[in-house]
Every structure is written in C-alpha cells, then in structure tokens.
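Input (structure):
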C-alpha cells in the first residue's frame, strides 16, 4: 500500500467513526445541510470569497460546539465504554476550544448552553468574533467563528430547551431542506446594529418554531408551554416523550412537515447572518505572501509551549488505529532522572508501543502551513528511538482547499537505536495543494520514540 493509499484509508476510518459519533448528536446532519443551503443563497461574489472554506464550514466548522468535548482523543466512544473505540481528537485537531472560546479541560473561557437564552447570547458573541476576523482579512478564522455562530443559531430553532422534541426533530429527507429563491438581507450598517438585529432575529426564530409546533402538541392533549415547563425540570420527561412518540407515529407527515419548516426557517436566518458578516469583510481578499525562504515555519517546533492542558500547543495526537488500547502518545517533560529524552529545551513528544497501523503527533489545522504548488520544502526532525527504530519517521502531508489529503512525502525511517538521529525529507508541493502539515509517525509496537526540534523550511 502506498503512503497516499494508507493516508486515504486512515481518513476513511476517521470519517466512519465521525459518522458514528455524529449520529448521537441532536439534529445530526441537519447542521451541515442547513449551513450548505444558506451559503448557496449568497450572491456569486460572496460564494467565491469563501469558496476555499465553504466545504469546511459545512462539514466541520458548523459542528464545532458539538465537538468541544473533553472526551475527544480518549478511549470509550465518549462514554468510557470499555467496548467502545477511541474518539478521534477532533477538538485539538481543529482548535475547536479556541474558536468556541471555552476549553472544557482547563475550564478556561465561557461555556454557552445550546438552548435559549444562552444560545442567543452565543450567536451574538461569535457573530462579533467572525466580523472582527473578516474585517482584518483573517478569512479562515472568520469562517471558523462563523461556523460556531451558525451552530448556536440552528440550535435556537431546533427546540434544544425541550430534549424529547429536539432529539426527535431529525429531518428524514434532508433534500427537503432547501429554498427555491431567497435573497438574504443585511441586518445592519454597523457591527453593533447588525448584532442587535441578529439577536432579535434569533429570538424570533425560536418563537416561530414554537408556534409552528404548538398546534401539534395541542392535538395530542399537551400544551406546548406546559411541555416546556415540564422539560425545564427533567431532561427527558416521560410525559413529553410519550406525546412526541405518539405524534411521530400517528401524525408522521405533519410532524415531518413541521420539522422541515423549522429547518428551512433556520436556513433563512443563517443566510442573513452570513451575508451580513461578509458585508464587513476586508475585500478583495489578499492571499498571504509566500513563505520566506530558509526560515523555520513550524509553530512550537520544540514542543516547549503549552496552554496548560498537558499537551504541546499546536499539536495533537493522530490515533490511526481507533481500536488500539496499548499505544500511548505523551508530551514528554524532562525530570530529575539522569536520562533526559530531549534534544533541546525541556520537552519533546513521545510515542510508546504504537500499533502496527501507526500512531502520530500531528500539527493541528490552525497551525498548518499555507503553500503554493511548485514550491519546494524540506522537513526534518530529531528522533531518539528504542526497540525498533525503523518504525519512526517524519511525513509532510499536503491537502487541498477542502482539507482533504492529496499527497504525502515521508523521510527514510530512523535507523539508529538509543541515539538522536535527524531525519529529513524534501518535496515539491504538488498540484491542487493549499495546506501542508507535519506528521511525526511511529509504529514500533515494542519500543518508544522521542521527537524534538521539528524544522520545515522553504527551499530556493
């Protein structure tokens, strides 16, 4: 199997487990479809402006608040189930906590509930974050903040304050989420005015969805307001669950029609919010200057920086075998013992007992390097290995504008045991590439490897 085929297989496995996890989310794939349809209402020039990030908004960014869980990267499918697989570390891979402005591990920032009134507040906060980033020409950051905003906006129109209804309102036919013709509107001429108007727009959305479902609840003998009061005291009250289940069985078409109407009303609100954010963007968008020749462009190359969560900042663990229970990847800090497994400074990264499919330290996407086809790069790292050193190397991974891998180039494997060895790889950026990431790979089941002093430079 080629390195690209192997990487493709790893991505497929990760997507498979993501789908398993996503199926447990309230509103499942509706977040993705609503975001996509909303973007589709934009004028051609606005769609072009965010074209390089559109797929990421639809597939990833609009799910950030549902991926900001401390259990990502841990064993047990998010519940600690000893039979469950490991959760891929999407939270660190995408810097989700940074964009949600809440780190659930170190309890830093502000956590917003996914139901009104906190969901309304979150929409306004992240609307302002997105506007600020776009106005400074930071398109990727702006799109990620916008994705967070979209999620809270969509949750505000999906009955999150009443979980029996929220969890049952999946649109069976996702193709029914569409707008024949809708021209989004600017919500304000200034960020303050627009934010205030959006806040009111989201409150109206919540009220609209409640009015849409009230007659159905009345027909089942339970007033909607009474159902809300019951649900405020208990997460999944049987009195409400029974009514929802009965409506889904006895009035399926009406129930599905109401759910679809709520989703489409969310599309309109999302379209207005996106259109308004982009009205404040710095235009035309100017791509960043080419990387300077000869300068190390890796963030935190010696793994000395941390945000206090026991991990090196800008790096995450890539679990290539989600069923493996033995392998470990740790942020190593030199102690008082005689042997210090660091090349420089006080820290390195360690891979121990890696499975045959491999285990990696990967650059997180917010720290990935933007590249241009035809440019030449050299990547290197110092490795110290015990056991089977040949199972360790450095890889440069190239991905397209949708963050999908198109090519990987890896160094020769480590060949020396118990001594530091520098591994390097040179490569020309292939066509269709927009991003480059460093992957530090290990697959020695009986040994350990320490990586330090990563270096990536653009060659003349």
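Output (sequence):
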């Amino acid at each position: 199997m080629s390195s690209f085929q192997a990487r493709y297989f790893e991505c497929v496995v990760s997507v498979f487990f993501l789908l398993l996890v996503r199926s447990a989310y309230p509103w499942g794939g509706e977040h993705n479809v609503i975001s996509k349809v909303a973007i589709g209402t934009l004028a051609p020039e606005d769609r072009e402006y965010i074209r390089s990030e559109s797929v990421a908004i639809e597939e990833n960014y609009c799910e950030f608040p549902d991926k900001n869980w401390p259990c990502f990267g841990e064993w047990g499918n998010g519940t600690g189930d000893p039979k469950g697989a490991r959760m891929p570390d999407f939270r660190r891979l995408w810097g989700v906590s940074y964009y949600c402005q809440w780190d659930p591990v170190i309890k830093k920032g502000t956590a917003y509930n996914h139901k009104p009134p906190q969901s309304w507040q979150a929409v306004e906060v992240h609307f302002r974050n997105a506007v600020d980033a776009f106005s400074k020409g930071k398109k990727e950051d702006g799109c990620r903040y916008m994705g967070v905003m979209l999620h809270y906006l969509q949750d505000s129109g999906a009955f999150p304050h009443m979980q029996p209804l929220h969890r049952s309102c999946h649109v069976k036919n996702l193709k029914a989420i569409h707008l024949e013709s809708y021209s989004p509107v600017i919500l304000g001429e200034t960020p303050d005015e627009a934010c205030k108007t959006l806040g009111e727009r989201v409150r109206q959305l919540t009220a609209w969805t409640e009015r849409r479902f009230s007659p159905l609840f009345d027909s089942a003998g339970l007033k909607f307001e009474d159902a809300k009061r019951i649900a405020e005291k208990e997460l999944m009250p049987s009195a409400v669950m029974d009514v929802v289940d009965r409506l889904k069985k006895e009035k399926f078409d009406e129930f599905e029609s109401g759910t679809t109407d709520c989703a489409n009303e969310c599309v309109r609100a999302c379209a207005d919010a996106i259109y308004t954010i982009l009205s404040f963007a710095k235009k035309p968008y100017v791509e960043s200057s080419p990387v300077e020749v000869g300068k190390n462009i890796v963030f935190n190359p010696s793994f000395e920086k941390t945000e206090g969560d026991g991990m090196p900042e800008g790096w995450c663990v890539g679990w290539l075998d989600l069923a493996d229970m033995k392998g470990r990847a740790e942020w190593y800090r030199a102690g008082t013992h005689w042997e210090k497994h660091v090349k420089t400074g006080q820290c390195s990264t360690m891979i121990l007992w890696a499975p045959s499919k491999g285990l990696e330290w990967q650059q997180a996407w917010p720290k990935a390097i933007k590249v241009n086809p035809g440019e030449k790069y050299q990547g290197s790292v110092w490795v110290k290995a015990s056991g089977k050193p040949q199972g360790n190397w450095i890889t440069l991974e190239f991905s397209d504008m949708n963050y999908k891998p198109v090519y990987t180039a890896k160094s020769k494997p480590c060949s020396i045991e118990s001594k530091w060895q520098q591994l390097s790889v040179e490569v020309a950026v292939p066509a269709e590439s927009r991003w480059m990431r460093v992957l530090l790979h290990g697959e020695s089941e009986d040994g350990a490897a320490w990586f330090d002093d990563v270096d990536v430079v653009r060659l003349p």
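Notes: The CA atoms of residues 20 and 173 lie 19 Å apart. DSSP finds 13 helices and 13 strands in the chain.
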